Amino acid sequence: MRDSVAAIPTTLEGTFKRHMPAFVVGGVMLLAFQVAMNRIDRCSSWAIDSIFQGRASEAWRPGLAMLALALFAFGVRIASRWFMFNAGRDVEYELRAVLLDRLHCLGTAFYRRMSTGDIMSRATSDLQQVRLLFGFGVLNIVNVVFAFGSAMQIMVSISMKLTLVSLANMPLLVLFTRTLSKSLFTRTRDNQETLGKLSSTVQSNLAGVRIVRSFALEPFERERFAKSNADYLRASLAIARLRGSLGPIVGAVSASGILLFFWYGATLLLRGPLDGGISQGQFFAFWQASMRMAWPMLALGFSISMIQRGRAGFVRLKEIFDAEPEIVDGASVQPPALGGAIAVKNLNFAYGSRNVLNGVTFELKTGESLAIVGKTGSGKSTLAMLLARLLPTPEGTVFLDGLDVCTLPVKSVRQVIGYAQQDAFLFSSTVAHNIGLALDSPDTPESAALIERAAREAQVYDDVQRLPEQFDTVVGERGVQVSGGQKQRIALARALLLQPKALVLDDPLSAVDAKTEAAILDTIEVQTKDRTVILITHRVAAASRCDRIVVLDEGAIVETGTHEELLARSGLYATFAEQQRRETALNALAHQEHP
Question: Considering only CA atoms, which of 214, 259, 29 is closest in space to residue 139?
Fold first, then answer.
């Protein structure tokens, strides 16, 4: 599926070409419709002239022909819309898949630049405008071309002079539409951008509603929303005024052509065909043909508006399509079976000009455990994300079974290295679905057994049993219905479920009590029997359970060894241990005084 999604063109021309067969068939149907209408005009002229020339008994033949042509036109008109509207829906479906695939590939730099609300605006409103462009827009433009040609054939065959007089307003119409087209594109793009900012404001308020309430920020947020809403209103009114004026002006210009037709056409009708004029049937046929051309011309303003809005939406979508991912697959298409041996060699990493990691080096064999300890901001979480390739890992610095992770497919690396992040994220779904997120069918009995086992290992099973609907309890947006410690342990269960070869745990104990911490550490010790474990923590008690310990300070390794070795050195790790020992003693004393 990923390969097929990647093959979908992300240019306006490429997307159109991809669906060309459907547009061609729809265009043929429109052509057939206009040919049928052309013949109806011709038959109406024949029928009316038969009546006025005393041959009323012959009028049934063109009348019967018009009935058959009308039924045929009805069928092909429906078929044309079926093909073209479906093509527009297919474009929307495929571009939405491309959009999601691209969003999955893009890294943190992109998401720092574009807000969630802005992305949602592009994925909904802009994508809808693109669908309308490829559906209604293409149909109307093709219909205008064929209607113009079909009507012109009738009009020219009846009277070239009358045709030229009736179309005298055409240059003015072309000039007017070209002038407004560029302005319509610019205003549509501005309107969509303000909609993105408004969506971002609403999204941030929903995500942080508890913070807004706890700090009494409602007046400030209402003011911020009012400003975004006012900007969107101004942009919407600007485009509404332009679109609102487009139709009436096009209609007025087109109406001038109708007035010219009646003025000069009536003159030719009074002359009659014998004196260089036209007959009653020809007058009616000409009028009918001009009306068939007038309606598409009246709809031209609507079509131009739709095309420009679709173009503006596509331009905004292309900002996502064309964004370069920071993390890409390596050259190895099918890597060998990978174990859990991890080696880091002289790893340096920076956010912009700020160095975060400096020359980090360590090595772990399969089944070994390593604790990474350090102050807040020492680079521990950055190191964890680099190991799992959630950040652009520098080449030649991180190795999995001796293979540079940058040469391997990203999916293969992440299947081997399970990662549980510190700031646990839960989807607005059930507990079971959050734990079994990576399972193909999380609702089967087999999956339920795996989910329950992972919950027990992460020491969250008893908490889940106390929830209103146990594993079927919906945790709410970002897990708002469960506590911080429960969120962390559900995320830990999610990582344990797949039984990865290596497990990177980013401070999974920061929001649990001492009893739960001890139980989770017991689980982690069990995990090390079958896989490599890297535990990032600030707790010395947790680090002491690991085979080796690495101490980070300002992005560099300042100490390494076992728990006992580091305590004996009286360095930074020993300082951490003494501080935490005192904190524990003070907490115990306070508990005795205030039981």
Answer: 29
pTM: 0.67
Quick one: CA torsion of 24, 28, 29, 33, rounded to 10 degrees?
Answer: 150
- With 60 as the cut, is the pLDDT of residue 4 above it? no
Give me 578's structure tokens.
């003494």
Give the pairing of strands 342-351 and 398-400: antiparallel
Burial of 468 from C-beta contacts in 10 A (0-12 / 13-18 / 19+): exposed
Give the model confidence (pLDDT) of 470-484 as tens digits.
878 877 666 666 777
Angle at 91 (CA atoms; ends 85, 92), nearest 5 degrees: 95
First and final CA of the chain: distance in angstroms? 60
Give the integer Cα–Cα distance in Å for 56 and 495: 87
CA geometry: angle 99, 104, 107, nearest 5 deg: 115
Is the CATH number of domain 2-321 1.20.1560.10?
Answer: yes
What is the distance between the alpha carbons of residues 191 and 38, in angstroms, rounded to a whole number?
41
Query: Looking at the DSSP assignment, which residues form a beta bridge with residue 561?
Result: 549
Classify domain 342-423+500-593 at the CATH class level: alpha beta
* For the chain, domain boundaries: 2-321, 342-423+500-593
Alpha helices of 323-444 — where are they, by DSSP H? 380-387, 410-416, 431-435
